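Q: Structure tokens for this one, please.
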Amino acid sequence: MKHFFDDLRFDGSKSERELIKVKNEYEKLQEELLEIMKNKAGNMFLWVFLFMGLLENLPSYAPEDIRQQMKGLPRELIPLYEELFRRKLSEGAELQAAISQKLPWILYAQRPLRIDELCDALAMQNYKKSETVLK
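A: Here is the predicted structure, written as tokens:
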């Protein structure tokens, strides 16, 4: 996967002019991303936080890939959560299994669970499964 540092690395094969061009492209991209945040986030700090998380987890930091991924993001939080969740589920079967194991505990808890409480619940769930298999 291409990373933006690959574009900026000077290995003798790129001229100073090419490096300046790449630098300018990333500066323009930074301005575009700030504009996207202003237009879509409104006064929602949480939206900006989620947006920054998406940026950090992109498979490629090439400017055209970043633009493509970010332009289609929704303004509202619920659709943004749905998009994040959809992306996580597409990462593979192991992650899907982990999410399907933990999500019911998180959703149906009477109050927000602490991490140690979630770990205890999952340990009990796994113990019950292994106990059933042994019978």
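A few notes: The mean pLDDT is 77. Residues 92-135 form one domain.
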